[in-house]
């Protein structure tokens, strides 16, 4: 037995990880320098599987350790078979609800191929945000030790209702719940107070620096993480090249350094961190050690195009 950072004992290697979230088709366009308005900008363009929820599940499965990783998501009939194959190839057990009316969500990722490889997203969430309570079953938690919810679920009415049902079911079974806020832009639309009320009962929150500061109104990420840890028992604030901060009970108690990397595409780096972090927690690691695993995965992610881990050799 080890502690899980929440003041209780956690079983080593106990049960599966269920991720509930978005499954998206990413169109990644890597360009160098500013976009040329009104004319052409040369770019290298690839279509790859993505979605924050799906990426987290894939990185969790890639870490290994033998734990089963499951994913609940909603896609359109246009790309359902492709996404199911890609998820299975990463070692994830997918349960994809096929929407009869709306196509799979699509994100256009504009990646500046300069030194920072920063990206801008154009998002059509499509079927992913139509995941609702009717797609949930308490049986999904059979054999599950941890439930992870993509923050994108809080940005539409049907999936907000699903989050409430899933949280209630998890609490009834004693299943730990984590959540990644997912998008500072969408988070701003929902509003910090409403967001925090919607995630009541979550055990682990994994915001980015911008998301943590937005949720608290504080300019310093350490102060923001500390404040959030008065609402959520364990807060892990992801800082990209500056590593991660871990806070609980109103105090930041650990800083985990980043792993050096040469970025090509930062898409999915936060998802990589989250997936590896959760897989390590599931295997019995302390939060600090799990965050170190997350930093290693994030470094690997930024050196690749797209948000998924490398496939098996």
From TrEMBL:
Keywords: Kinase, Transferase. GO terms for molecular function: kinase activity. Pfam families: PfkB. Residues 17-310 form the Carbohydrate kinase PfkB domain. InterPro entries: Carboh/pur_kinase_PfkB_CS, PfkB_dom, Ribokinase-like. This is Sugar kinase. It comes from Streptomyces sviceus (strain ATCC 29083 / DSM 924 / JCM 4929 / NBRC 13980 / NCIMB 11184 / NRRL 5439 / UC 5370). The lineage of its organism: Bacteria, Bacillati, Actinomycetota, Actinomycetes, Kitasatosporales.
């Amino acid at each position: 037995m080890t502690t899980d950072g929440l003041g209780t004992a956690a079983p080593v290697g106990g049960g599966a990880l269920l991720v509930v979230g978005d499954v998206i088709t990413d169109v990644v366009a890597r360009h160098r320098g500013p976009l040329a308005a009104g004319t052409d900008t040369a770019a290298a363009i690839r279509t790859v599987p993505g979605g924050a929820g799906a990426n987290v599940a894939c990185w969790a499965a890639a870490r290994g350790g033998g734990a089963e990783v499951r994913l609940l998501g909603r896609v359109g009939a246009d790309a359902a078979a492709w996404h199911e194959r890609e998820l299975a190839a990463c070692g994830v057990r997918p349960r994809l609800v096929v929407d009869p009316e709306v196509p799979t969500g699509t994100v256009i990722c504009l990646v500046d191929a300069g030194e920072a490889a920063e990206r801008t997203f154009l998002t059509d969430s499509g079927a992913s945000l139509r995941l609702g309570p009717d797609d949930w079953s308490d049986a999904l938690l059979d054999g599950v030790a941890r439930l992870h919810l993509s923050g994108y679920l809080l940005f539409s009415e049907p999936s907000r209702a699903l989050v409430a049902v899933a949280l209630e079911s998890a609490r009834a079974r004693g299943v730990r719940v984590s959540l990644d806020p997912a998008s500072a832009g969408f988070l701003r639309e929902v509003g910090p107070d409403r967001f925090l009320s919607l995630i009541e009962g979550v055990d682990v929150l994994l915001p980015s620096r911008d998301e943590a500061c937005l949720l608290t109104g504080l300019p310093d990420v350490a102060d923001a993480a500390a404040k959030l840890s008065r609402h959520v028992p364990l807060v892990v604030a992801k800082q990209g090249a500056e590593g991660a901060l871990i806070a609980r009970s109103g105090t930041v108690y650990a800083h985990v350094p980043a792993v050096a990397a040469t970025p090509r595409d930062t898409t999915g780096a936060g998802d990589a961190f989250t997936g590896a972090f959760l897989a390590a927690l599931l295997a019995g690691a302390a939060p600090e050690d799990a965050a170190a695993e997350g930093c290693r995965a994030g470094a690997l992610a930024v050196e690749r195009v797209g948000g998924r881990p490398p496939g098996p050799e």
